[in-house]
């Protein structure tokens, strides 16, 4: 799905009537290759000029934050589903509509966000709900990543070499000195390249190693697995020197309980990963719908507030959504600015060829609102 749009709001003074304005947009923008949708901005409760300026700043910040959250949902879905953003977006629905249909037929949800509430209250309500969903999703994703890491570790223990793999199917009780007050058996994965050195040195590595206690339990292409018995007091020093000698200690205390736990480790890790993955998939889909809906409502609020600040009261302006190919967005913005750039007043001037260019000395208002100041209310939207 290729959902790329320009959202514009223009004062009614730009045209004698709405139909004439729509006709000009459909005829002149991108050579007439444009789909036009009219937005009816609700009649929000307007406060003071100072409050509108503060709300403009807040709405700009939340707009970007929620748009980032939408991208995060797409990234999560791509990582667990293995499909690109466009393919994921094309499948999602909001209030029973695909994303592009939802944007193109958008109507303010008056039952959820009542118009008798002040703008500031609407901002807080919409953003808090969306950000709570975003936080829940991020927490769920972190839990899933931990479960996936645990599964990878469990898989490695199933298939790795003797230095890392699980030993529950390899060792037996007779390989250990059990229930001794003074003696302890340790396990070592010894690289085959240093096997002779190991056999010559292990008895004298520290004091009180039981002579000839090394038992070869198993081997693979890289390692021998040995058990060695020594006095418990000297185990830490022995293991430290073993590491220096490139012998790899395997942390293993033999007990039936430990053996049973290791046997179940892979199955439990696989079950948990599967459960959390399914939970995350469900949450991602609902989060995408919720956050896109909230973001669209914030965008409409932002359009209204900016329009009042730009064009004044009473709120009397036209708002349109223009669907365009991605490659035509920049060209279409230039065409709109060329036609309606005069609305920027002293903020825009004409060069020697008669083209509109931004004045380096933008008037004071430009520093209070959008950093990328345009001569009229103009936003780019892309959810592809």
TrEMBL record:
Keyword Oxidoreductase: no
Key word Phosphoprotein present: no
Pfam families: V-ATPase_C
Keywords, ordered alphabetically: Hydrogen ion transport, Ion transport, Transport
Superkingdom in the source lineage: Eukaryota
Gene Ontology MF annotations: proton-transporting ATPase activity, rotational mechanism
Any one GO cellular component localisation term in the record: vacuolar proton-transporting V-type ATPase, V1 domain
Binding partners and assembly: V-ATPase is a heteromultimeric enzyme composed of a peripheral catalytic V1 complex (components A to H) attached to an integral membrane V0 proton pore complex.
Function: Subunit of the V1 complex of vacuolar(H+)-ATPase (V-ATPase), a multisubunit enzyme composed of a peripheral complex (V1) that hydrolyzes ATP and a membrane integral complex (V0) that translocates protons. V-ATPase is responsible for acidifying and maintaining the pH of intracellular compartments and in some cell types, is targeted to the plasma membrane, where it is responsible for acidifying the extracellular environment. Subunit C is necessary for the assembly of the catalytic sector of the enzyme and is likely to have a specific function in its catalytic activity.
Entry similarity comment: Belongs to the V-ATPase C subunit family.
Official protein name in the record: V-type proton ATPase subunit C
Source organism of this protein record: Ogataea parapolymorpha (strain ATCC 26012 / BCRC 20466 / JCM 22074 / NRRL Y-7560 / DL-1)
